[in-house]
Every structure is written in structure tokens, then in C-alpha cells.
Design brief:
The chain is α/β, with parallel strands linked by helices. It is built from 41 helices and 24 strands. It is globular and about 105 Å long.
Amino acid sequence: MRRNSAWFVVGLVRIIGLWSALMACRPAPAVDGVRVLRAELWGAAYQAGIRENDLILSWHRDSESGPVRSPLDIELAILEQSPRGEVELSYQRDGHEHRAALRHADWALTTAPLESDASVWHRVEQARAVHASSEAEERGGHVAELLRDLDDPRLTGVLLEHGMQPVQGFRLADFEDGVQHVRAQLPGSPLLGWHLDWLGWSQHLAFDERAEETLREALALYEALPNAEVERSQVLNHLANHELRRGNYEAAEVLYREAHAVRAKLAPGSPRNGALLGNLGLALRRQGRLDEAERTTLEALREGSKFAPRGLHIGYPLRNLGLLALDKGDYDAAQSYYEQALSIFEEVRPDSVEVAGMTLNLGNIAKDRGKLQEAERRYRHALELWSALEYNPLAYASCQHNLGQVLLQQGRLAEAKDHLEAALAIKEQRVAGSPLVSTTLFSLGVLSRQLGELDRAEALHQRALAIRRAVTPDTADTAESLFALARVADDRGLVEVALSRRLEAVEILESQRDRLVFGDDERSRFSARFHEEYRALAEFFVDTGRAKEGFEFLESSRGRSLRALMSQREIRRGALRELVSERKRAEQRLSRVRSRLARAPAGDDAVFRTLHAELQELQADIDDVRERMGRAVPAIALEDALREFSTEKARSALLPSTKLLSYSVGPERTLVFIVSAAGTEGPDVQVREIAVERDALAALVERFRAFIERGRVTTEIEPALLRIGHELYRTLWAPLEEDLRDVERAVIIAEGPLLSLPFAALVESVESRTFLAEKMALSFATSAAVLTVQSEEPKNPTLALVALGDPDASASRAKLPHAREEVAKIAKLFSGELGIYQGSEATEAQYKAEASSARFVHVAAHAELDEQFPLSSAIALAPGGGSGPVSEDGRLHAWEVIEQLQLQAELVVLSGCDTGRGRELSGEGMLGLERAFRVAGAESVLASLWQVSDRSTSELMVRFYEELQSGTATDLSLVVAQRRLAETKTWGHPYHWAGFRLSGSPTGGSARATPGSAQTPPTAMP
């Protein structure tokens, strides 16, 4: 049974005389004073001259002074005297007396009494030992029992300083009573500041709304004291942590920076400085500033390593680096960081919150990677740990929920049900009506549907939806519940009900996409979460004879991350700084109101009405700011234009004798929407169904590419290549042949496994070795909606061509002699002002200086593909060059292209290996170098799908530019060059000519209408 923890506070607030009496009864030692065991290099004591083995005798501040008989006197001087002003210590060394002036409270001093006795200090030490070793439920009672005779309110400050925090074993009410007593006995004292600070922190951990008020009071108290900067920095840190949890990430950043600045100035090298940097990294991460967050967290790790090789100051940054790695999708790095952190936590704090949290996180990684058995093992261990930590039942419930999810994925439905219901019982008891409850209700609804219990599934999903509508309306979670209810309606044959629920869910999602600013990885996860639902709705339209509606729905949903990336580019360039800040402030207020709504008492209609009114008002403010942003930057207004996408606009955007082919690759079937150019007879939209499963198609594409890439070591076109190429032709193209009769060019919208398929190499006939490139010109687009939007930005390039060949990138990289020949031959085809750079002159600085002024940009260089972090992919140019203090490193990253270039080019050619590859965003195409140049303004980009040959690529590019300079459009020029190369004996293998793909709008020659013509095709924005 728990002992009466109130003794901890009540016992500490009795009359000071009893403590004095205890001290008076203490046998006086021969010499007063305490021995210095350690003085940290960064602390105020060391800086003032105090060293190991010195004997500290007394303290002095202004007209006040006191003897030092035990380490307790040192602790009280730190807490009570140091914040009031400079403290001077008298100490002995080698029999000589000295004085040291300490100017701030981070003394970093460890001392020991001269003799072992029953002094108050030893009672405090006993209390600390019991606190560290006891179970959480027993700590308060044991400590209270040991200290029941020590009635000095100052001692609670000592206990707090030594880590005996009330949240780990004491009731919050007990500590509040103690604070009130200290306020009465020691008003305005630094010790009251200590109590208020820790009370505020305890309230924060207990999700008590009074936390900010308490912490602000502590901050005001310390600001009124002359020497309390260190204490103020601790309160700032606690306030920042509070703002971070409330979603006020920019406010948290400001507070962390202020706290760190104080400590870095007063106590450079302190391990707490590293902790503050680690917290700052969390605030930056929450803002999506992942690179800054990683740099800051690594700095925190370096700071901590100076203090000691292992400890909490190392474990926390490692944990945070794991979180950042997860944000970037790097599960290997995340797991490595987490395992290192877990090792430290198990050593420093076994069976603690930190160990349980890391175990839970490692289970989450295993779950996300599909390692369900490992996830189950981790979750079960975490359950045991959280079960022992009885003061955090919600963490225990989260473990139950996650374990239930893993068992559900394994089909172990009965076991999953037990754990999910256990989680639900705890959540409904602790946080009834909160989003945490709705999450478990949703999972139980999914489980019930799998069991065929449709009535129960409907009821559970409706309960989850009710909570989400009340607490987090118009969010992805609400849409998720609507989609789940739509699937239940499908099972019951309620077609119109299912459609209505799906359409409402989509409306919510589209609204949320417009309102929120995502990072690239967040956007990818958001799209992936619901991409299958969008596809299912498009298929529903097709199955009910509404192909045009299905096409318009699917295409308007595609490419949003690309368009949002453009908007973010403008924001990063500073075009909207004030408006962005205004919107973020409104969104932070919105987050706070939603947080209050989540914790509002169930059944309090008046509170709910008030908070809902605030939500509506704030959302109106956000919408107003967005409208003003759209007027300021066309890339943002583009979102509004795309909402008006229609099939008619798509048809008008297509050139004559062109058809648009939009592939939607589903788990069990693939649909192809076929759209003809305006003026063409026939239906607006036709749809063809291909009976091929996504996994089977992916395997076929992978085998086809493997045989093509064998062309780097053989000139033979192997029968297996022809056979697989023909199978893909029959699967993907033959069903469309009737629709494509008399068509010269096709614009393809690909997804899934088709993003890496070299369509040009599809084999029409095995016997005659006829490839698709011999029949039709191909180009690729992210979505039909993107093609309909015309760029209004004026283009006035001053250079006809900027070309770089075989840069001196690195001694470890192979030279590209044919790249030099390639650039030299291409340059001879152009007239006008040119920028041609080879070898050491082909620098990154030169490229950045001139690429934005060119009509055509050509780069023949090595590329570095980073599929894990696609915006870190780079083109290897020569280092150096440029002006100013920073010299370019020669690696032109995709993120640099987006943030630093403003291209006017009709065409950018990336004549290197893997320049068209990246990471797939579900329903959004590839993220990588190709996309970066499109976002930077290029109308079209020619890039490669694999590691191409230096020699054959040079031959292909020269032929391509020869055709282009004769007046042929880019897509037709590419197919002519491919055909010419395919006819040669040396370069006839598809490996040499099928690897380059044109993305964007065909330009030049017949791609543009002649001046004065009735129809001028729009120039597509990316």
C-alpha cells in the first residue's frame, strides 16, 4: 500500500527550530568545512579558482555570511544566495586561506563532509538513496518518513536539485501545498522560484493547464533577482518544453535559443548546454527544418561527449537523431541511433521511462518495416517496463494498442482484440473523448470488419468519427474514419452511402492539403496514406460508367506535392515571409484550441460550443492569409487554378495528333484513361482495363530492366529481353492500339512500377525486333492537371546554350572523355551567345551563375543518386569558383537547384547516370534531380533511368541536338535520335538508347503553334 506521501511536504514545512536543534545536538568537528571532491572545468567554482581537495569554510554575500559545516550548506548557498548576487567562498589550500568570487549559480561543485555523522546532510543523502532505489509508488512515503523531522522549507529545494522530482512518486497536490507554505514563509526568495519552477514542470507533465502560469511566475521572480540567469535559463527551458508540446514550435525555438545563450555565456562546456541544443533540435524538427535540426542535434551530441562518453546527455541526442532519421525515412540510421540510446539508458537508468520509450520506438520501427515478430517482441518487453512504471498508464495503453495492431496485421484477431480492448479501457478511463480513444476505436472497427461483424464495425467507426468530428474536425483522421465507414457500406452493398462517405472524406483531405505546410517527407506519407482510397474512388466512377469523372478526380489529385514544393520554394526565397509567419501563428493558435478541445470535459456543451466557434474563426483567418499568399505568388495561386481542372482543359493542352495516356496501377488491375487532343472526334475520355496485378507488373518491369542493363557488357539483344519486352507491350500497349491509330505522339502519366519502365524499348514484334520508339514519340507528365496550367512568368534568356562537360569532380571518379566530345559537338550546332565549360572550368559556381540565363542547359557529368534522401541527390561538378567567403564544393544537390536557381530554360538535359531516378511519392511521381529542375522553372527535362554509357550517350545526344536544331520538337527529336542509334550495329542494344526520358512539355519546332495561329498550346508549369 502507498504510504502517505503528504509527509514529504508537510514534514518539510515545520518550524525551522527543530532542524536547528538537531544541528545543535550534533558533535562539533575539530574543523568546520567541506572537502572539494570535484570542480568541473565549466563551473563557476573552477573558474573562480577552487580545485580538488580544497577545504571550503564559509560563504559571504554583501553583508550576509554563513559557515559551511556540511555539503547541505553549500547546496543552500547555491539555491538561496547565489541568485541574489555574487557569492564569495572562503577556503583553505595547503594551510593558507583564500577567497573565490562566484558570479553565477552553476557552481558544478561536488563536496563531502569532513566526518560521517547523523547530520541533516546525511539524512538528505539517505532520502536520495531511497528515492533512487524505491518503486515509484513507495518513494513519497519513504522519503517523507526519513524527513518527517526536518521542517525547513528550504530543504525541498535541495531535494529538487538532486533529482528527487515530485512527478516520480509524489502527488501533485502534496507539492502544491508545499509551494504555498514556502510562498508564505519565504516570499520573493530564490527558493520560491525553485519550487514554482518544479511545480510548473510537474503540472506540465500532468497535462495541467496551470503549468504556463506557474512557470511564468517563476520566470518573473528570477528576472527580478540580480544574479539568477542560470535559474532563469532552466525556467525558459521548461517553458519551451511546454510550448513544444502545445505545438507552438516557433515560440519554443525562441525560448530554447534564449536559454542556451545564457548558459553558453555563463557556463561554456556545461552538459546542460548540450541538452538545450538537443531540445532546440526538436523544435526545429517540428517546423520541418530537418537539416538545421540534424546539425543542432549533432552539436548537442558533441557538447555532451566533452563532458562524459556515456550518460543521459548522450542518450537524449541519440534518441533525437533517431527521430530525425525516421523523418527522412532512413530506418537503418534510426534503428542504430535508438539502439545506442537504449544501451545508454539501460546502463544509466535501468527500468526507466527512457528504456521503456526506446523499446517502444524500436518496436515501431520494426512494425513499419514489416518485421512483425520483432515488433511484437519489443512491444511485449515495453509492456512489462511500462507496467512497472505505474505513474504513466497512457504509455502502457499505447503499448497495448501497438501490440494489438501488430497482432492484427498477423491475422491473430482474437489476441489483437484482447490488447486493443485493454488499451481502450485505460484510455476511456483516463482521457475519455480524446483522439487517443478514437485511434483504438478505429483499430477495433477494422478488426471487427475482418471478423465479419459489420454492425459492430459500423458502431466502432461511428464512435471514432464522432470524437474526431468533435475534437479534430476537417483533418486526415476524420477522413480516415469516413473511408473506413465507406468500406463497411461496400460490404453491405450500399453503393450510394459508400460514395457519399468517400466524397466527404476527399473534400476534407483536399482542404487539409491546402491549409497545411508539409515537409517533403511528410507530404509523401500523407499522400501514401490515402492514395489507394483515391484510386478506389476513381475506379468506382469507372465501374459505374462515369469514366470522365473518374479521370478528372484522379488527375486533379495527382501532382500536389510537386505544386506544393513550388510554393515552398517561393516561401524559402523570402517572397512571403510576413504572410507565412502570420499563417503559422494562426495555425499555432488553432493547434492550441484543438488541444484544449481534446481535454475538455465530456458533456460540457458550453465549452464545446465556445471552442468550436474559436476554431471556425481561426480557420477563416488561415483561409484569408492563404488567399493573400496566392495573390502574392502565382505558384501558390496555381492550387486554386488546378481545382478548376477539367477534361476539356486537358484536351486543349494537348498538341494535334497527341493522346494522353494516364495509367492507374491498382493492386489487382490497372486502368488506362485515354484522352485525345481538342478537335478530335470520339468520346472525351475512354478507359481500358488491363488485367494485371501490381506486384506481377513490378516483377516483370524489374526483369525487363535487368536484361536491358546487361547491354553494358554485350551487344547481343537476348531472346529473353525480346520476350519480356513483348509481354509488357501486349500487357500495357496492345490493348490501346485501336485508340492510338494515326497518333504521332503520346503523353504518359505513369505511377508505381511504370515510373522506372523504359516505354521506348517495349517490343511490338519479337520476329522483326520492332520497338515502340519506332512507332511513336513519348513524353511524360506528373499529371494531366499540371499540363493545363500556363506559365505567366516572362522568359527572356540571354544565352542560347550553357553546357558543362566532364567536370573535374573527384580523383576517385572516372573521366568522361566522350562527355567533352559531346559538349564540343553540341556547341557547334548553336549560334548566339554560349557558355561552354569543360574540366576544371565546369564548376558548380559557374553553373549557378549562368544556367538561369540560358534557353538550353546541358550537363554531361556524373550524378550521385540518393534514393533514401532524394533531394540530396547531386550532379558532380568541379569544386571552387564563385565569390565571397564560401567556395562551392562541386556537388549540385537537388535541394540547391530548388532553392537557388530560377531557370528560364525550354530544356534541361542531364546527360549522366540515374538522373531521372529518385524516390516514388505515392501518386505523385518521382522526387529527385529531374523534379528539382522542373520546380526551378525548366519547361522540360531529359534525364536517364539507369547508369548509361559515356560513349553511346554522347552519340545519342549529338543526334538529338542535330534534329532539334533542324526545327523538330524535343519529343520528336528524341525518338528520331533513338531510332538512328538503334539502327547501328554498335549501339543497337536498347541499353544505349532507351534509357533517356523526356519529362514536361515538348518544346521547339512543331511543338509550338506558329505565330498568329488560332490555338497556342500553353507552356506547362511543373
